[in-house]
Amino acid sequence: MTTPLAVSVREHDGACVIVLVGELDKLSSPLLRDALTARFDRGASRVVLDVAGLRFCDSTGLWVMLDFRRRAGEAGGCLRLAGATGVLERLLTLTGLTGVFPLDPDVPAALRAAVPPSPVPKAD
């Protein structure tokens, strides 16, 4: 029995966090594509995918992530994966993509990397 994909989105200080829970496959990948497209169409270029809740990911889901990683890079931003373990970690390792995606242990670490700190004003 498959677990439907749930997608939720929240904004966080200059970055967009998209939380994925369930199974990302050929049937559910349009949900992720639509969420990413909506954010990119609004000008978001720093995106964190919280993938800790993914129970399954196939090549279709991986292609969606790759496509938007490319788009984010072209826009001067990033697409980071937070909490990639289990099946997704194995898929990234088997496909040699662990070096393509910035991987973070959790969302707070991904946000720290995605949104650089504001420069401290210099005292005159």
UniProtKB/TrEMBL annotation:
> Which Gene3D superfamilies has this protein been placed in?
STAS domain
Q: Where is the STAS domain?
A: 5-114
Select a single GO molecular function from the record's annotations and give it.
anti-sigma factor antagonist activity
Pfam families according to UniProt: STAS
State the family it belongs to.
Belongs to the anti-sigma-factor antagonist family.
Q: What is this protein called?
A: Anti-sigma factor antagonist
Species name:
Streptosporangium becharense
